[in-house]
Specification:
The strands form three sheets. The chain has a seven-stranded mixed sheet with strand order 1-7-6-5-4-2-3, with helices on both faces. It has a four-stranded antiparallel sheet with strand order 8-9-13-10, covered by helices on one side. Strands 11-12 form a two-stranded antiparallel sheet. The chain has two domains: about 1-230, Type I PLP-dependent aspartate aminotransferase-like (Major domain) (Aspartate Aminotransferase, domain 2); about 235-360, Aspartate Aminotransferase, domain 1, CATH 3.90.1150.10. The protein is built from 13 helices and 13 strands. It is of the alpha/beta class. Helix 3 (about 50-60) runs parallel beside helix 4 (about 80-90), helix 9 crosses helix 13 (about 340-360) and helix 10 (about 285-290) packs across helix 13 (about 340-360). The radius of gyration is 21 Å and the shape is globular. The relative contact order is 0.14. The model has no long low-confidence stretch (mean pLDDT about 95). The structure holds pyridoxal-5'-phosphate.
Length: about 375
């Protein structure tokens, strides 16, 4: 990325040599991203990240279509970016159906069979960003096809953590984001199956073959490409290493609190994500206490002015409200080590005791 900042000043759309050097760097990144997810390079459209990718897929699949009336279904546990794109469509009068998940956080596949025939688009993420639960996307695609629907798959959390195979998944659209892969923020890709409709969000000078107008963010794209290459190279070893760390973490947390509830524990999850509720210890209090000791986790609940709202993902899984507001998500990545896990395990009992002693469990 630094080399491209220092040396690739040309506009990748320019015909002069400087421009063509930038174009070559962009095209190399396109191949690197395509290789990570087993897609054709010409199916890769560079965008600014997961949020734009989700919007481009969902709004782009529907376009200005009015007849016959489009209809969209999304799983209840989609990221805000997919919910946001669905909101835009709803404001245009397009009906949005919600597909439920079970208590483990897995999509209820049968719900797809009850969708209105002719549903235009179904969105099912590959792995949930809060629980890490892996979704049955291939089966969802098969069922969506029976009712004639296209499928968008948000693979932002999954890519780089587990194998993502665009051909095997069978989806029409697949969103990726650089900063979830060890790459830069503000760079991502939407993989669009050959022949799938895509009305662009931005119409400019026909960059990305007319699918995404705007001068390419060359350093960001280069960073995304290298991150994709490294993720593909290290995938299996990293997956195994992270899984070992996750087991170490979960075993230790359970020793600290035998009543601990790990959300989605019984089903396949990403190797780096643990979402767990410690009854009676509110997540916002633990988050602050851990942060003060140098450990950054995220709350499975959004809190504003002292009021804690349970996460919609945990609510969709039927987690009771008083347990949902006690959930935290601990994520690990390629820099995480066993000694960091052990440090968290040393701190956690102190933090739990303090949070429980504060007695603020009511919501
Ligand atoms: N989709 C999922 C599942 C995510 O986890 C995120 C980010 O956390 C996004 C989409 C949005 O990606 P970005 O931050 O690149 O816009």
């Amino acid at each position: 990325m630094r080399e491209s900042l220092e040396d690739l000043h040309g506009n990748a759309s320019s015909l002069h040599r400087e421009g063509q050097r930038a174009r070559a760097a962009v095209d190399r990144a396109r191949e690197q991203v395509a290789l990570l997810v087993n897609a054709h390079p010409d199916e890769v459209v560079f965008v600014s990240g997961g949020t734009e990718g989700d919007h481009l897929a969902m709004l782009g699949a529907i376009g200005d279509r009015a007849e016959p009336g489009p209809r969209v279904a999304i799983s209840a546990i989609e990221h805000h970016a997919v919910h946001g794109a669905a909101e835009v469509l709803a404001e245009r009068g397009i009906p949005i159906d919600t597909l439920p998940v079970d208590h483990d956080g897995v999509l209820e596949l049968d719900a797809l069979d009850h969708l209105v025939h002719g549903t235009t688009l179904v969105a099912v993420m590959l792995a949930n960003n809060e629980t890490g639960v892996v979704q049955p996307v291939t089966q969802a695609v098969e069922r969506a096809r029976r009712i004639g629907a296209r499928v968008h798959c948000d693979a932002v959390q999954a890519a780089g953590k587990i194998a993502v195979d665009f051909q095997e998944l069978g989806a029409d659209y697949l969103a990726l984001s650089g900063h979830k892969l060890g790459g830069p923020k503000g760079a991502g890709a939407l993989v669009v199956r050959r022949g799938a409709p895509l009305v662009p969000l931005f119409r400019g000078s026909a960059q990305e073959h007319g699918r995404r107008g705007g001068t390419e963010n060359v350093p960001g794209i280069v960073g995304l490409g290298i991150a994709a290459e490294c993720a593909a190279r290290d995938l299996e070893a990293e997956r195994r290493r992270l899984l070992e760390l996750r087991h170490r973490l979960e075993d230790g947390l359970r020793r600290a609190d035998p009543e601990l509830v790990i959300h989605g524990e019984r089903v396949e999850r990403l190797p780096n994500t643990v979402n767990a509720s410690f009854a009676g210890a509110r997540s916002d209090e633990r988050l602050m206490a851990l942060d003060a000791r140098g450990v950054a986790v995220s709350a499975g609940a959004a809190c504003a002015s002292g009021a804690v709202e349970p996460s919609p993902v945990l609510s969709a899984m039927g987690v009771p409200r008083d347990l949902a507001v006690c959930a935290i998500r601990i994520s690990m990545g390629h820099t995480s080590t066993a000694s960091e896990v052990d440090r968290l395990l040393t701190i956690m009992p102190l933090v739990l005791r303090a949070a429980r002693a504060s007695g603020r469990v009511s919501v």
